[in-house]
Design brief:
Helices cover 11% and strands 32% of the residues. The strands form 3 sheets. A 4-stranded antiparallel sheet has the order 1-3-7-6, covered by helices on one side. Strands 5-4-9-10 form a 4-stranded antiparallel sheet, with no helix packed on it. It has a 3-stranded mixed sheet with strand order 2-11-8, with no helix packed on it. The chain is built from 2 helices and 11 strands; from the N terminus they run ααβββββββββββ. A hairpin with a 4-residue loop joins strand 9 and strand 10.
């Protein structure tokens, strides 16, 4: 997920259109006990929002990378005590356009333990970009357990439509917390 450019959005929109046209439903992982959820029910594909995102080093906040050339670079390994910037785009499946804070009721990140954090809509790169996205800076606690973190991002629009982003089920791509560096 290297870019939030128009080509990327066109690719996401084309994939969504193909899924809708083919009636394909993609199963998703859940953090809840599957037995407690009951039978799975799927909303019509045309009602699902398209949620796409990435995680990068942050150039903002008290723990921002000291090297400005590293700000907004993607990686999956973050040491305890570091910051992760989650950037998310939500696409309307009908208009195939990004959705802003006037169209969405909420965008939240859910961690495996069930805690949630609201993402905020705004500009990227401290005003150096005309691009906007939903974002959240997570300051990883110094005592956060090491290992992979399978989070999810859920968007709900003001019409009640929803969409969820799930992390890749591939360790090299998953958010991984490493021990704090003493360097």
């Amino acid at each position: 997920m290297a870019s939030f450019g128009l080509a990327r959005l066109a690719g996401v929109a084309a994939l969504a259109a193909a899924l809708v046209a083919g009636g394909l439903a993609v199963p998703a992982r859940s953090y809840a006990d599957p037995a407690a959820q009951g039978p799975a029910t799927a909303a019509p594909a045309t009602q699902s929002l398209i949620v796409d995102g990435d995680m990068v080093l942050t150039g903002e906040g008290p723990l921002a990378t000291a090297d400005p050339t590293q700000a907004c670079t993607e990686r999956n390994l973050y040491p305890q005590g570091d910051q992760v910037l989650f950037r998310v785009r939500v696409i309307d499946p009908v208009t195939q356009q990004p959705m802003d804070d006037t169209q969405l009721a909420s965008v939240t990140r859910t961690m495996p333990d069930g805690t949630t954090h609201a993402l905020q809509y705004g500009g990227l790169s401290r005003g150096q970009s005309r691009d906007h996205a939903w974002k959240y800076i997570w300051e990883i606690p110094d005592d956060y357990p090491t290992g992979t973190v399978n989070y999810q991002i859920t968007a709900v629009d003001k019409l009640g439509r929803t969409g969820t982003y799930f992390t890749w089920d591939s360790p090299p791509s998953e958010l991984t917390i490493t021990p704090k560096s003493n360097a």
